[in-house]
Structure formats: structure tokens, C-alpha cells
Design brief:
three-stranded antiparallel sheet; 16 helices; globular; eight-stranded parallel beta barrel; single chain; alpha/beta; 17% strand
Length: 418
């Protein structure tokens, strides 16, 4: 087994007696994080048209960027020459870097997507649309090729061919200079098959190769752990146990599609139960506020979610009274704040009528103000969850918050735009 060379440390400070949710402290090369923590997505080094100091002012402790995006543009060599991610993006706090799985899954055409507004189901496509979707998926499937040694794919920008192996992937991550990065996984769509290409045995081999290739000691390295509600066989469970025994600094859990918890909450709990309790767990995607509580109860320490800014693009604000579609005509003459309970810059400065006007006029400021509020809401809610875990009142807080987000007919909270 490879020797651990951890650049981070993690301490559990409190555990909720009813659920097992935990509050802790994660030390990184660029500062400490109080957990549970919402890691704000900054795919290409920018968060929703906001400056880094504005994001930090909302309470953000860390950001997460996309390795795929930076390797495609401006390139790992150029990024390294410009001082690495922190210098290049102007963010001084901890930075997480993903393993490219989300972007490569999109290239492979096997990514579950959510569409439409809350409580408004996506219409079933007609026969022609279904056929076109199948043709697109087949064409996209040829973009990503996974084999035992690595993954080959074509850039969505210029069609250039790229090859990632566990070893070259570590080199790219180390060039970027993030605080924490996730090991390469084979969670990409199988070429043209419409299936996921996850191989439990391959996942363990790639994890071992990643650890062996590690050179820098100033970065935290997380294992990539697949969570699948569709195929959790004996081999998958054994692979999770083997990954848990390797000297990774933490574990990044990912699943099928943009929202793991929608279909695999039980599988998530089972996977976490097999992981060591002394190392941090990161979840790659959440949806609505109910997912935040589900993740915390399952024992997640850090998570990222593009949901707040995605909702903002639709003009949907997350408020203490529930989701608010600011584009509705009813708010045209409403001189009240978007959320009377919120103290973010948007709610303390502007009215609902003004925000509605900006969206109607298609002004860029509309997105900035909506994103500011939604990020403040999610970051504030995460801080409240942490305090509730410490005080042992997580169930009470969950009941209070989710009363404003009624369940859908499927028994889960109504889905927001995705």
C-alpha cells in the first residue's frame, strides 16, 4: 500500500445523535473549512458573474473548478506558468478540482439531466424527437472511449483528441495547484452503448495507480467512489471496501446524473457506511434544499451544487417562504425585498419589482442579483445545518425549513429547475 502523504487534516467535532450527521473542521493548504460546507462551483474559475471577494463576502469557504475546462482552455501548462489556480482566478481560499467525470459524461451522452420548472414535469418527446435524441447520443458516444489504461476523448471546443490515464491525470492536477483533487475514475459513458462504463475492479486499479503517481505533498487527494442505485452488485461493494483501505485523504462520491439523491439515497448511505469515519466525504452534486439535509444526515462533510446559480438563471429565488419565481407579473409593482428574512446585498438593496424588471428587460444584472441571493441562501442554510448538528436539533431545523418546500406527488420535495 502506498504511504499517505496528506496535505489536509480533518476532525469531527460533533455528531447529531438522531441522524449521525457530523460537524467538523477541514484544514487545507489555503485555510480551514467548517463543515458541513457548501463548496461553490466555479467551473472556469468564475462564480456566477461575481468577483471572488463578493463570493467570500456571502460566506463561501471554498470553490470547485473543472479540470476539463481548464485543460481545454487555457491549458494546464499555461495555467501553471501563470501561477496556478489561486493566482489565476484571484481566489485565496481552498479550491477543489473535480475528476472531469461530469464533463466527460456529457460528451458521452449518458448524463441524466433535469429540465423544466418546479412541479411542471418535462413533456414526453414525440417519436421524431426520440429518434433525434438517440442519434445524438450515438454520435456523442463515439467521443469518449474508455479502456483499462485510461480514457480518450475529443474536445468540445475544437475536436482535438486527448488521452488521460491515472498518471497523466495526476500530472495535470498537480500543474493546476488546487488544494484538493479527485482521482480519475471510469465513470464515463461507454462509447455508443447507452450504459455507464464503471468497472469496480478497474476503479481500484486506477486508484492504486493514482496514488503511485503522486509527486506533490501540498495537495489533498480524494478517491472517486461511485454511488449507483442501478447496479450495486457484490463486486461494487467489494471495490468500495478496497478503496476505503487505500491511503486517500478523503472520498468524493458521485452517481448517475446531476442529482445523486433523487434515486440513490439508500445507496449513498450504504456506501458511506463502508468508508472510514476519520476522513472527509465530498458529494459532487445536490438539487433542492431537501438534498442538503439528506446529505448531512448521510454523513457528508462537503458538497457542491450548481443548483443555486442554475435556479437564478431561471429567475427562481430560494427564500424562507419557499421558491419564488421573480419573473411573474404579480411582482411588477411589489416594492418589498425579494426575501424579507434575508440580509444579502440583493435583498437589502433592491425590490421584487426591480428584479422582475431586470429579468423582463434581459439585463445581465438580473442574473448577478439572483445568483447573489441564492448563494447567500444556500451558504446560510448550510451554516444553520452545522449549528443544528452541534446543538442536536437537526430534525427540528429540517422540519422548519422544508415546510416551505412541499413534497411532490412522488413523495420527494418538488423539483426545482435543473
Amino acid at each position: 500500500m502506498a504511504e499517505s502523504r496528506s496535505a489536509i487534516s480533518f476532525t469531527v467535532l460533533a455528531t447529531d445523535p438522531a441522524s449521525g450527521a457530523r460537524a467538523g473542521r477541514l484544514e487545507t493548504p489555503h485555510g480551514a473549512m467548517e463543515t458541513p460546507a457548501f463548496v461553490v462551483p466555479a467551473g472556469q474559475g468564475v462564480v456566477a458573474s461575481l468577483q471572488p471577494d463578493e463570493v467570500a463576502g456571502l460566506g463561501a469557504q471554498a470553490t470547485a473548478v473543472s479540470l476539463y475546462q481548464f485543460v481545454m482552455r487555457p491549458g494546464a501548462d499555461q495555467l501553471s506558468a501563470l501561477g496556478g489556480l489561486h493566482t489565476f482566478s484571484g481566489w485565496s481560499g481552498p479550491i477543489f478540482v473535480d475528476n472531469g467525470g461530469y464533463q466527460l459524461a456529457r460528451l458521452g451522452g449518458d448524463l441524466e439531466r433535469y429540465d423544466g420548472l418546479l412541479v411542471r414535469p418535462r413533456p414526453a418527446p414525440d417519436q421524431y424527437a426520440q429518434r433525434r435524441a438517440q442519434e445524438r447520443a450515438a454520435a456523442q458516444g463515439r467521443i469518449v472511449k474508455v479502456d483499462d489504461d485510461g480514457v480518450t476523448f475529443r474536445s468540445h471546443l475544437d475536436g482535438s483528441t486527448h488521452r488521460w490515464t491515472p498518471e497523466t491525470f495526476v500530472q495535470l492536477q498537480e500543474q493546476c495547484g488546487a488544494d484538493l483533487f479527485v482521482a480519475l475514475s471510469d465513470e464515463f459513458a461507454a462509447a455508443g452503448s447507452g450504459r455507464r462504463a464503471v468497472s469496480p475492479a478497474r476503479a481500484v486499479r486506477w486508484a492504486e495507480r493514482t496514488l503511485a503517481a503522486r509527486q506533490r505533498t501540498g495537495q489533498g487527494l480524494y478517491a472517486s467512489v461511485a454511488v449507483s442505485g442501478r447496479a450495486r452488485g457484490e463486486a461494487h461493494c467489494e471495490a468500495v471496501v478496497e478503496l476505503a483501505e487505500l491511503p486517500f485523504d478523503g472520498f468524493a462520491l458521485s452517481g448517475p446524473g446531476a442529482d445523486i439523491l433523487a434515486a440513490t439515497e439508500t445507496a449513498l448511505r450504504d456506501t458511506i457506511a463502508a468508508l472510514p469515519s476519520d476522513r472527509p466525504r465530498h458529494l459532487t452534486a445536490l438539487g433542492d434544499p431537501s438534498d442538503l439535509f439528506a446529505a448531512a444526515r448521510a454523513g457528508i462533510d462537503t458538497f457542491e451544487s450548481a443548483a443555486p446559480t442554475r435556479y437564478a438563471a431561471h429567475g427562481l429565488l430560494l427564500t424562507a417562504a419557499g421558491p419564488l419565481d421573480i419573473k411573474r407579473v404579480v411582482y411588477r409593482e411589489d416594492d418589498g425585498p425579494p426575501d424579507p428574512t434575508c440580509v444579502c446585498p440583493t435583498c437589502t438593496t433592491f425590490t421584487r419589482a426591480y428584479l422582475r424588471h431586470l429579468f423582463a428587460a434581459e439585463e445581465l444584472l438580473a442574473y448577478t442579483l439572483a445568483a447573489t441571493h441564492n448563494l447567500a441562501f444556500f451558504l446560510g442554510l448550510t451554516a444553520r445545518v452545522r449549528a443544528a448538528i452541534i446543538d442536536g436539533v437537526l430534525d427540528r431545523l429540517e422540519a422548519e425549513v422544508l415546510a416551505a418546500y412541499p413534497p411532490s406527488r412522488r413523495g420527494r420535495p418538488a423539483r426545482l429547475p435543473g
